[in-house]
Amino acid sequence: MSDHALPSPHDWVRRHSPPGGIERIEAWFGGHGYDPHRHDTYAIGQTLAGVQSFHYSGALRHSLPGATMVLHPDELHDGMAGSAAGFRYRMAYIDPASIQQALGGETLPYIRGGLSDDLRLRCASQVFVQALEHPLQALEEQDALYDLAVALRVVAGKPRGRKRPDYQAAERARGFILEHAEQDITLEALEQVSGRERWSLSRDFRALYGTSPYRYVTLRRLDRVRAMLLDGFSLVDAALAAGFHDQSHMTRYFTRAYGVPPARWLQRLRA
């Protein structure tokens, strides 16, 4: 690994995550940014300066200013500077459930390679990658989500040869998860509440929301961990309150989801 790939003490992340709204960040990294990890959201953004490199879908990709990054939910990726100059970028994390409000139960659109030069996607994502100093009004956000969903569908093209998922059954399961994320949830319980055979439900859940029911539970628990850490709770208290066995259990899943341990995540936000 070259010197410029090492973590920089001057790396920083600015984050805006209003209650019930879309999480957006702006960040700068001088070298290594994130270890391999997976979100259960779309990560949609733009490189503002420098070369933003990342491994994705079996290849090393390079994002330059002018392109749009569209990382699919649950796709493994990392992040690093592609040159000694470092890179700066903005990213929005879009819940697939919000996209489904416009798609109405279609398989999630997939943008191959995680990068697109299509102007329709760039325009549709512009609202979400504007400066964090400009908060999104509720109606503005909803309009932009619809435009983004349509652009994703058009640019990705419709998948062929797959039966339409049972959206209502999957939504019932997702609602149950949101209400009981801190508890021990089983496929049997999801089968009962959704009215759908468990393996069909699991397959449809992945198609509609981009991840498995278990991963969805885990990420909701991590959402609570992040909120508690920002409120000043200790790692161990946040882990136990969110439903993890202990701090090390939570830290392992946190790093897999965000590419950095929780203490490092907090440090960057406070830089």
TrEMBL record:
Residues 171-268 form the HTH araC/xylS-type domain. This is AraC family transcriptional regulator. It comes from the Bacteria. Keywords: DNA-binding, Transcription, Transcription regulation. Regulatory protein of the TOL plasmid xyl operons. XylS activates the xylXYZLTEGFJQKIH operon required for the degradation of toluene, m-xylene and p-xylene. SMART domains: HTH_ARAC. One of its GO terms (molecular function) is sequence-specific DNA binding. The keyword Cytoplasm does not apply. InterPro entries: AraC-bd, AraC_XylS_family_regulators, Homeodomain-like_sf, HTH-like, HTH_AraC. SUPFAM superfamilies: Homeodomain-like (SSF46689), Regulatory protein AraC (SSF51215). The keyword Transcription regulation applies. It comes from Pseudomonas cremoricolorata.
